[in-house]
Structures are given as structure tokens and as C-alpha cells.
Amino acid sequence: MTVRRTRGRGRVVAAVVAAGGLLVGCSGQPGAAAVVDGRTITTAELATAQEELAPIFAGARTQDVLGVMITEPIALEVAADEGVGVNDEQARELLRTVAVQALGEEEGSAREFGPGALAVARYSLAIAALQDLPTAQAAADEYQERVAAADIEVNPRFGEFTDDLLVAPPTTPSWVVPEGGRNAPAEGATPAPAPR
Question: Where does the record locate the signal sequence feature (predicted)?
Fold first, then answer.
């Protein structure tokens, strides 16, 4: 792999990640951020992945990371079926390269990455490999069909998995009162004096 190609893939990871209550769970599974075909992605796994990726991918939102963690196994299956599978060592190499670019040689090369961060890198490599195929459109269609057929349940705390294959941020229910209450002074207004 050349440096030029690695940097390009680093940008793909950044684009994927950027595009992209422990008490509340999915289907009665406490601590689940999402459940995909019976496979649980825990809130702890998601938080660790977010923490590991945030210093090297500015703007990486929790919903983006979760969306990738949800669909990564499917992307890997399609890539393997197309003969362009990826592995953990390639993912580690990509993350370290991006970390060195973002944080410098000393700090970036010393970074360790857990399963969630590796999943994001594997996804990025698989998607990039599929896009480079002569049959890229057919592979993309197959990927989208498999994702659509998957049983995906996202913890409402993190949002909702959409037809665009993304996790949309949660919406605030209409019954939630903004901080300060309904009669809070407008921003910049002088608050009323407190009663004596």
C-alpha cells in the first residue's frame, strides 16, 4: 500500500465517520446501543470507539460511529464475496496512519484501538475496496439490500436507523420542557428579579 493510497483511505474513514443512559436498552437488553440480527452493540463498546476515534477524526458524532458499527459486518460480507475482504491488521494500519497524521508520529504511533474503532476502519476499507471494483454499483446494491433485510433496532437514546443507512440523531419529544422551563427569559434578556 502506498502512502498516497493510505492517505486517501484515511480521508474515506474521516468521511464515513463524519457523514456519519445505560438504563435504556433495546428490546429489554439493558446497555444496548443497538441490536443487529441478534448481535448486541453495547453502549460501552460505542463509547470506547467514540473516545478512541474522536482525537483523530474531528467532528465524529456518536450516531455516525454507531451507524458504521451496525453495518460493518454486512459491508465485510459483501467485500469478502467480491474477493476484496479486509482484516484487523489492515484496519490497525489504517488507524495508526491516520493517528500519526492527526496527532504526530510519537503520539499517533503509540495509540491502541479496540474492537469498535477497528470495525470502523474495516468498514472504511471494505467500502473503499467495493467502490474500486468494476462491479461497484452491483456491490453497492447488494450491500443496501442486505442492510435493508437486517433486523436493526437502535436504542432511542442514540436515534433511529434510517433508510439512508444512517443513524439519525434523536429528536426531543414535544413533552420535554427546555432547561429553564417554558417561561425562561429569551437569550440575552434580563431575568426577572427573584421573589423575596
Answer: 1-32
